[in-house]
Design a protein that fits this description.
It contains one helix and no strands. The longest helix has 70 residues.
Length: 72
Amino acid sequence: MESLKDLETQISGAIEKIRLLKDAKVSLERRVSELESQIDKKNEELLRITSEKNSIRDQIEGLLNELQNLES
């Protein structure tokens, strides 16, 4: 009878550990999703900034070419 009670206790403990692990998994999956979303936003921001930088560089190069043409 005592061994049956021990088995019941072990099974209950295992079930509780499984429940906790499932909860942790859900929490971690949610966190991964949040971090992936942040990465996507940062990548979009980086693309925007790179595009702005290229546009400014092109404008400056155009102005420098105009200045060179004036000097000629």
